[in-house]
Amino acid sequence: MAGPTSPHLVIPLMFWGESSPSHCISAIQISHDHCTLVTGSHDGQLCVWVMDPNTYKATPKCLLVGHTASIVCLVAAKNTLEMECIVSSSENGEMCTWDLIDGQCIESVKLPQIHSHIQSYSFGGTEDASLFCIGNYPEILVIDPFTLEIIMNLTSRVHPDWMAAIHVLRPTRRQDDVVLGLTTSGVVKVWTVGAQDLNNLGEPVLEHESKQIRCLSATSMTCCLYNQRTVIIVSPKYWQIYDAGDFSLLCSMASRQGESWVGGDFLATDRVIVWNNAGTGFIYRLPTNCVVESKDFHNKSSEEDFPFLYCVLKLADEQKFPCPPSIRCSLVVKGDGRLVKLLLRGDANGRVSVFSIPEVTDNQLEQIQQLDFDNPPIMNPQSCSSLADAWDAIYPKPVGVLSHVDNNISVTASLYITTQNRLVCGRADGSIVLVNGLATLKSLLLQQSQNDLQNMLTLEGHTSRVTCLLYPYQLHTRYDPVQLVSGGADFTLCLWDISSGTLLQKFCVQVGEIAQLLVPPANSSPRILQCICSVAKDHSVSLISLKERKCVLLASRHLFPVTCIKWRPLDDFMMVACSDGTLYVWQMETGQLDRVVHGMSAEEILNACDESVSIVPSFQEGGLANPAVHFFRGLKHRNISAIRHAALRGLNQLQHASASGHHDSGDHAKDRGVPLTIQGLRSNASEKEFHAVFFDAEALVVQLLHEEYSLMSPNTLETHGLINQSEYQKVAALTHSASPDAQKKIAGILAKVRESAENMQHKIQSRSDAGASVRSSERGAEDDGLSNNENVRQRQIPHTLPNDWSLTMEIAQLLLSLLHGWTLDKDLDHACQNRLGLAKPKSPVCFGLISRSGHMMLMLPTWPAGEPVDHFTSFGHWAISSTLTTNHLLAIVALSNTLMSMNSAAFTDGKIIRQFPPREIARSSEDRKGEESSMVLDVQTKQGWSLMATLHCVLLPDKVQELQLLHNSSVLEVFRKAQIEMLARRWQDRCLEIREAAQALLLAELERVGVDGRKSLVDKWATFLPTYADPFTIIGSSLSVGSNAANLTGSGTQNLSIPSQQWGSDGSSPARPTGEYEAEEDHDDEDDGEDVALRRPNRSMELKRRQATSVVLLGVIGAEFGQDVGENKRTGEADPRKKKTVEGFGLGPNQNLARLTSKALTYLLLAPATPKLPLHTSLRRAAIDLIGRGFTVWEPHLDVSKVLLSMLELCCEGDKLIPSMSYGLPLSPAADSCRTSRHALTLIATARPAAFITTMAREVARYITLQQNAQALNVNLANTTLARAKPEILRVIELLIDKMQADISDLLVEVTDIVLHCVDHGHLKGRSLSEVFPSLCRFSQITHCSSSRRIAVGSRNGSLALYELRGQKCQYIQAHNAEITACAFSPDGKNLASYSSTENRLSFWQQSATGVFGLGAVQTRCVKTYTTDPVPQCVRPGSTIPLRMARLQWHSGKTVAIMLSDGSETRYHL
Question: For position 636, what pLDDT does the model report?
Answer without folding.
Answer: 44
